[in-house]
Fold these 2 entries.
Entry 1:
Amino acid sequence: MASMDVPADPSAVAKPARVSVVKPTYITWVTLAFMTTASVASLRSAPTMAVYGLTCVFLYLLPAIIFLLPQSLVAAELASGWTGGVFRWVSEGLSPRWGLLAVWCQFAMTIFYYPTLLGFVASTLAYVFNPDLADNGVYTGIVIVMVFWLGVFMSARGGTGGIAKLASSGLLIGTLIPGAILVVLGVVYLLQGNQSAAPMTADHLIPQWTGIASLVLIVNNFLSYSGMEMNAVHVGSLKNPKKEFPRAMFFACGLVLLIFILPALAISWVIPADQLSLTAGVMQAFDAFFAYFNLQKLVPIVAIALVCASAGGMLTWLAGPSKGLLLIARKEGYLPPFFQHQNDNEFPVNILVVQGAITTVIALLYALVPSVSSAYWILSVMTTQVYLIVYLLMFVAAVKLRRTQPNVERGYTAPALSFLCVVGFIASAAAILIGFVPPSQFENGSDVAYIGLILAGTVLLGLLPPWLFLKFRKPGWKSNDPEATS
Amino acid sequence: MTAPDPSRRSPDSDNIRLWYWIIGSFVVVLAIVGLVTYSGKQEDEEAQQKAAQLTQAFQQAGLTVPVNQDIFVRSFGTDGGAVCDNPANALGRATLHDQMTNGADFVGRRPVIVDSRILTGGALILQTYCPEELEEFKEKTGDLKTDDVIKQ
């Protein structure tokens, strides 16, 4: 029986998780808040949400209440009691096998996520330097592969401290400053006496109800806050994690809400929804926005800023889930020793290199094979389904930990934890269910076939690999390093 | 919880600092090159005429027009800019699909059912600035499922 299968002594204080906490440098709680914000929010979706006008406030606030709030409060309590992030919480609350499933789901979805993120980077750069390049597969492939491997290299060399610096810089330069500029210009537009392009009356706060399409829009927006818990894996890098992690989480929640809502509103004041042509990507919206103010010289600056924000966010995703996977692999011997290798910065180099190789192949298929790029959106549905499994497990584990380990010292205790977990669980389950509704992109075909495709992809990507790891694992895979097994 | 040893430094810390400088400098150079090369759009008589034509097309379709027609002039010029660059090819469609999503920026990004007005506006822009792209665009997007999710 694995060590974590034994019910913990209720009187015990959470064990020091030395395996995860020896870091080259401390990071401050503000830095961790910036890392968390950088991994969730940027200006990329501002034009997309601007089309909904004042309704975008509802579309972000409702999910904030029923998904972000439970997620953040529960993660704050868990991280202030146990180091190691989601793998440790689920391992302690349920079992190490469920912990493996949770961290695998968090890790695996990123493999398919990077090509679209970096494809966006490529098209954003092309918009400034040569728009023709945006449709060039070779250019797109080169940018994706180069930026991804540069990210891996920087993460491996810089460790948590380096990633924290780069991600925080990316957030500041790429999101906070340009976001503030957008909001100030939007306010100036209104102060000039112009009427808002999108109606700002109270009845426009509530979304248009058209049945399933409105439900898809509202429920899928829960996922806007996916990843708030991910950086908890770095909690050991804080000087006083019990106090500082909750503080970082609440600060990040505030920042994320501001970044999501205010720039989208500012764009909706100036640019009518109909005019936001989607074919040229988000930069066309920023171009049109700055065109009103005759400030189009800011377009390349905003483009570079968006690239910085995306790269900073990518770094946090490179570092977080892979580290969680490494921790459980070493502690429980779930992965072959090759994958348990870490460098001097305690960065899981081999996991990242193998992930990078797979990502490179997928990215090249995305960039160079037309049928893959046209249908790639299906993978984003599958991966978000897989990610939601993490939340189901996290909420169940949190309730169980309250009952089985009530005396573990928590720096922060979430109010009405069971209620929060029920709300968060239902929200996550609803998002999984709504993921089976075909979106706009599903042009033709049977709905049943679509459901089967999404289900098969979710099982293949999320459930099959951890099952195979467990089935074929060998006793010798467990690390002899006392730090890894503590 | 055990606090880390603050005195411990990464053996490559000086080396990594050099990389920060290299990346920072690269970003600055990229921004400068962008400022120099990004020329905006032509704002001549032809651009004004096309903007007026687009405004009329929007009004006829019952769509909202901006308060200032100069937005059309400056963002589309005479050739439509990036909107007209192969909107119907595979990566163009991937970009379009990536825009028809929820409000997530990172891992939660997921497709939704969008409003037809967004596609109508895009088609009118193509019709005005690059009509040769319109038919293929309509073929590729004609089957997209839409609904009236934007409140008028």
Entry 2:
Amino acid sequence: MLSRYPIKRNALLPLLHLAQQENGGWLSEESIKYVAEICEVSETHVEGVISFYTMYKLKKPGKYHLQICTCVPCCLVGGEELLEHTESKLGIHAGSTGDDGMFSIEEMECIGACSFAPAIIVNEDYHEKVNPESMDQLITDLRNTP
Amino acid sequence: MIEETLVLFQNIRNPSYDKSLKGYKKVGGFKALKKALKMKPEELVEVVKASGLRGRGGAGFPTGLKWSFMAKNTGKPSYLICNADESEPGTCKDRELMLKDPHHFLEGMMIGCYAINCKHGYIYVRGEYFPSIKSLNEAIDELYAAGLLGENALGKGKRLDLTVHTGAGAYICGEESALLDSLEGKRGHPRVKPPFPAVSGFNACPTTVNNVETLTCLPFIVNEGAEAFKDFGPENNAGTHLVSLSGHVEKPGVYEVRMDVTLKQIIYDLGGGIRGGKALKGVIPGGASSPVLTAKEIDVEYSFDALGKAGTMMGSAAVMVFDEDTDVVKLLHRITRFFNHESCGQCTPCREGTHWARLIVQDFLKGNGNERKMKRLHRVGGNMMGTTVCALGDAAAMPITSFVTKFPEEFEKYYTQAAA
């Protein structure tokens, strides 16, 4: 990855993604230190970058991270209701993870699926035109996935 | 009844289209690049200038002119960076191109790289676009395997590399100088200009940043000529463009149209009208930052210039439609929440203004609105306009002032009812 960039620091964002992926979806102190060393920047610089972007996590998310968009186009067609429904269904609030570690919920700003709203991302997969019923089905399916 | 005009979407609309390199070549793919490589880069810049192509990312700046600003003979490498950060609320057009016809876009990107003497181009894709990132990486692997990228990509001994770079969730990184900071491995803070990127951009080298859709227009322009491109649409608004239609319409979707159709035709002919036979209340015509239009104002040509004259803007061509049942105050509250969340915090008017705007709109929702707060909203909006390093301050202010001006009764309803 470093070879794709003129200077090492340029690879910081993609390397953080990679580190997060390999660490089960979040960045530990060790992974931050490691990335800082590779990019030849201070750990403080890396922490500053992490805190700026919403996709880097300092806590372990659920096995299934439900990212529910409530931004303008999704909000117009039921995104907020979908978020509330999911929160009450799973008994957790946006920004938290359930006790069994299966699900976490995050309220998203625009995820760029506006013409297919309401839209959500589960880990890396988009699900579009989601309603409370299809959300229930999705949760059941995910629970039953071995 | 209008229909789509297919240039960018001609492959995507073909149900049997195979988006692999083989499939793209079968429909004439990479002929334009071959033709472009027979021209001098300066000639190519002139062709694009003559085509009247304007940037599709939001600002509508002439692409050929932007290229011509690139500093020459600096002894530093030149860079073409594609802005695929698509994060203006309502916009979902670039993802269609990257997902469903990646080679078409990549051919455009390669033509752009040749035009500005770029040896390594970067595609900055927003991090949430996992499927688009995968689609692009697969297509780029195919190009390397076929020798279309790498050692002799732009002729014998003329190397070209392309790299997909993933963002990590920040609206502001769609602003070109913030994007460059982000690409360099920093927090995405917009830069003070000048110097403009064409002089000092990525790693302080001459850089052009172009949008995905803008670059995807290039194969057509090279193949068919500047005049053919100009023939679509009115004077100064050349070519077809992609409109992301969302909200309360029967058939939301991404549609390709000429710029001489009206907003009304887009909503009623292509979008099938308002969902459930309801009446229209208003339209946000060009992304969340564009000033809102009322139902009476939609019979306007959907072009850069006509929308500008109508007091709004085309922006990224994201049309968000809302019907008679929509609570406009709640809608504005959602918009102010967005900008409050996405302000990078660098400039005081924007950091504080987006925060206070959200709180004041929230006051109305809680029954604590009044006339004084209406005026204060206006003032907060006004204080953000033109007072910040980048356009996010303006982007946050325009919806606030336009909503309050165009739907005052909706705000009044909240405090007169609360008083009663």
